Structures are given as C-alpha cells and as structure tokens.
C-alpha cells in the first residue's frame, strides 16, 4: 500500500527538505498587523531577519497565529485517499494548538468516506525542530518499507522521549500568544531573570527554571542534555532553533559536540509562527 506522510508548518522544515523527504505540509497562518502570511509557502521564502527586527523595534506590532481547521485538512487529505494512498499525519502538540484536533476531525470524516484506507493522526506533543526530528524518523522508516501502523507506533513511543528546552528574552510574547500562563510569565520576568522553559508530558510549555544571564542559561542547556538524553550520544542528534541568535546556536552546538563528538546537530531559525510566540533572542534545544 502506498503511504503519504503529512505534517504541518510547525515542524520547522524548509522547502528543499520537504521535497527531499517527499512530505506534504499543511500550513498555519500568521497575521502581522492584519496582513496574513502562510508559515510555510513554497516559492515564498520568509524574511526572518526582517521579522526579528520588527519584533524588536515595534512595541505595537500585532501578531496572531491561526490553527489549521478541519476543512483545510479535508482538502489536503482527500486527493491522496481518492488515489488509493494511505495517510499518516504527524501533528504539532495538541497542548499548543487546536491544529491536531482539526486533523483528527478531518480523518474521522474521511475514514467513513474511504473505509478501505488507513488514516492515522498522531499528536507528537512537540513543535518546531523537535516535531521535525520525529517526522524525519518516520520518513526513514517509510523509505525502509515499514508499515504505516508500525511507524505511527514508533512516533507514539518517541514522543515520550523527546526533550524540548528553550530560553527566551521576553516571556510576554509567549503570554500574548496564549502559550504560557500570566502567572508563569510574571514569575519568569522578575528581576530580569533568563527563564528556561520546556515542553511537558502533555506538550504544553511550562517554566522549568530561572537563571541569571544568557551564558548561564546556555551552559544549563548543555547540562540538561548531559543529564536527560535517552539516545546514546554516539547515535544522538540534536536540533537547535533560534530567533536571530545564530551565533549562540552555533556556540551551543559546538559545546555539546566538543563533549560528545559523534553527536549530529542541525541549526535552524524557529519557523515564523513559533518565532512570533517566542520573540527575538530565543534559543531552543531539542533531543532524545
């Protein structure tokens, strides 16, 4: 049986990668002062540097992200089902967005219409490059001839092993976007501490610890990797996402690789929708 793997724009994959991995992407929408842009749009590269500058300079900048609704998923999924192709959709965390729910609703509607097809929706309880790492593993299994249900089971297991930590400069971006409670944002902002946040077991963002200074926060991310990695370092990959602090991203990767030379690192900017929530100066570390 043929299979198509879907994910959403939260997975932090870029156009060349999407083509290479033979994926289908359904995109969230970002509104910037009422102007709407897709967070993933082939042929329309996003101006990350310009966006970070606007976030830093314009206190009145209005940012809003919109989940993917069931209708969008119906339109994306159905042509493949009509062609006799099964579908596996690896969704961003349901703890962060209603996007998973939209995909699940579409799957339930289409399963009744195409009962002979397999349609699986998996909540990765992750986002950004952490979600993308699970998508890559799913693609590798697909290319090795592994069955859809076995791939879905693998992702269900791996999502319990993913570790997602990140530091931000301004918690108010997360608070305004509904990704962090007001009380957590206030606690993290006291005395200009540099908070480290994490994705919890439900895929929600919670405050992990508060530190003085970015250097201390970066060193703490390295310590967290050393303490919590599940995969053996010689087989381990890390994902590092950032909003305009690429130098620090490379520093973080170099420090980890210096201690664990066989670790493979990928560094990318946070995709547009996530960037709007974490704000400029954010740095994230994702690993198993």
Automatic annotation (TrEMBL):
GO MF: lipid binding
UniProt keyword list: Lipid-binding
SUPFAM superfamilies: DAK1/DegV-like (SSF82549)
Family annotation (InterPro entries): DegV, DegV_C, DegV_domain_contain
One Pfam family in the UniProt entry: DegV
The protein, known as: Protein DegV
Species of the source: bioreactor metagenome
Lineage start: unclassified sequences, metagenomes, ecological metagenomes
